[in-house]
Amino acid sequence: MSGTDGSEAYDGDDAHDDHAGRAPEGPRANGGGGPDHPHRPPRIPTPRTSVEDGGLPLPAVPDREQGEDVQGMRENLRESLRQDLDRLGELAGTVSPAPEPAHPVLKSLLGAWALAACSAEETAAVEAHLGACGTCADEARRLREAVGLLQRPDSLDLDPGLRTRVLERCLERRPPRIPVPEWALAYDAETARLDALLQDFGDSEWHAPVRLRWFGDEGARNRRTTVAGVIAHLLAVDGLVAAALGLDDPLEEGDAPAPPQERTERYWRDAHFPPTRSVRGPWREQTHAVVRTVSFTQGTGLLGVSYGGFELPLRDALVDRAFECWVHAEDIADAVDYPYEPPAPRHLRGMIELAVRMLPGALAQRRRAGLAAPGGESRHLVAAGRPGRSVRLEIEGRGGGEWLVPLDSPAAVGSAEHQVAHVALDDVEFCRLAAGHVSPREAAAGQAGDQGAIGDVLSAVASLSRL
Amino acid sequence: MAKKDAPPRWDRKMQQRLARGEAAALGELYDRFASLVHGLAHRVLGDERAADGITREVFVHVWEHPESYDPNQGPLRTWVAGLTHRLAVQRLRDTGAAALARGGPGTAEELEHRVRHASVAARADYIVQSMPAPLRAALELAYFQRRDYRQAAADIGITEEEARRRLRLGLQLLSTAHDAASPGAPPGYGGAA
């Protein structure tokens, strides 16, 4: 390789050359008309820009037989590399310094040339060469045609509803022997929707700032993170479910699981670096593993999942995680200015139903913390299972329903006779309140009756939210 | 961005889970391949609803006949792409022929030309998605972002020689979309590894 400059040597490494036998004829860079094809009309396709901008026809599709050439091109890379190197050696011995780049350099430029991505001098040199070198002209034409095949991917956001429709159709045609439990379907659907949202995110989206909001005992709280940080948060808290199922916990925990916020803070802290897009894979794998595993544990929907301070049955925990997934997907969508739809009505209804079931407990907790009105003149202690003072909660929309929420004890039964107030709000608005995204005072709710009771209920809904 | 090809173990496992009738496996299969399937079908048919239909057909077929995939013949991804291609091209030809039979404009020859064109375009998409990421990135810069190869080299942090190499190799791979443009192209769908 002596006397050959580095770039030429390097350049040969994928070069295809099926005319090595002609090599000893020497350089043709500065010749007019190749000796092999003295009368051949120029076979040079025009550079892409001028073809497209000038509206000229693209070169005709080559004969099908050329397919074999290309197959050979790909299979014989190694062989041709060797031949090229041999040729280079010969050239190096025989060539006097030429004003134009040598054949291998010009050949290496064919891709860039076809894409109109080289300098004017290089373009001119390549085109002069193409008039002289049949092999390069053949390849040039093929590559130019290949450029015509480059297309922007149809940037199609797959309709998220399509997943449900396709899967349902499949399962109708062949009922599954191991179905996904009904109560895990919302989690399956919401994690798939979020994953689809993340699909085309670049680094700027992954690092877009997100402000997570929730409602604590002290009122509105928030925490700054990034899109990747939100996914890390979901990964860490979903880990509670994973751990309960005996799967790997993304956090190495001691004996007692920590509550969601603590887990998240610890996960963020232990990562040493701010989370990046690399968090998507582990998050998605874990969601898939959870769905897969619960399918094999039919009937154990009552298995307890510890959230640190409290426990939820598995079936409720998955509805809760589906809800969180949607809420945070919306946080992410807002941060990057994408639209994001609410869940399918039946999934939304499951989420609302769970929140409503948790309300009496939340009311009691707030009362114990001195945040809700204690029993007053009209209030009486209610024996378990007995009807008590109630608020009628009417959730409008396709995910909605109507409930009587007992005010004074989680053990009491809601009662129309003891109804003291009526609150009506839209399904999605109710969820925003439960997510801590609107405050109890701002929530667009129609109200009638005892204002104090209504305030307690709306605040209790908001208190269900957490980081 | 296409996901990196999964190891064959995943393919084999997936096939077993589908054969066992595990609905969760079907969901995972969809999550991995739906955008590939829908994208290819859309490239062939140029219509959202038709692409939805092909997507449904492909997953129904895989779910009903998981045994028709043989892991020894190649990756599941390639097989799914081939199946999609076949069904989509078939649909294009059928709807075109039906339109001709109803006295629609055009000739059978033009229809065949259209089918071949759509077929090559879809295969080209698949090749671009499946080629090594460095080649795709170089093409992306040069073609869509109009960077010359020196700028592309600087953007990526590689030598100019390497940039030239990647552009040329990427186009060489892409040019194989013209090969085997006949219907029923698989096995070896798309050529690119």
From TrEMBL, chain A:
Basic and acidic residues biased stretches: 62-72
Organism: Streptomyces galbus
Keyword entries, A-Z: Transcription, Transcription regulation
Endpoints of the signal sequence: none
Region: Disordered, residue numbers: 1-72
Protein name: MDMPI N domain containing protein
Top-level taxon of origin: Bacteria
Listed InterPro entries: Anti_sigma_zinc_sf (IPR041916), DinB/YfiT-like (IPR034660), Znf_put (IPR027383)
Domain Putative zinc-finger: 108-137
Automatic annotation (TrEMBL), chain B:
One GO biological process term: DNA-templated transcription initiation
Listed GO MF terms: sigma factor activity
Entry-linked InterPro entries: RNA_pol_sigma-70-like, RNA_pol_sigma-70_dom, RNA_pol_sigma70_r2, RNA_pol_sigma_r2, RNA_pol_sigma_r3/r4-like, WH-like_DNA-bd_sf
Keywords, ordered alphabetically: Sigma factor, Transcription, Transcription regulation
Segments forming domain RNA polymerase sigma-70 region: 29-96
Family: Belongs to the sigma-70 factor family. ECF subfamily.
Protein name according to UniProt: Sigma-70 family RNA polymerase sigma factor
Annotated organism of origin: Streptomyces galbus
Source organism phylogeny: Bacteria, Bacillati, Actinomycetota, Actinomycetes, Kitasatosporales
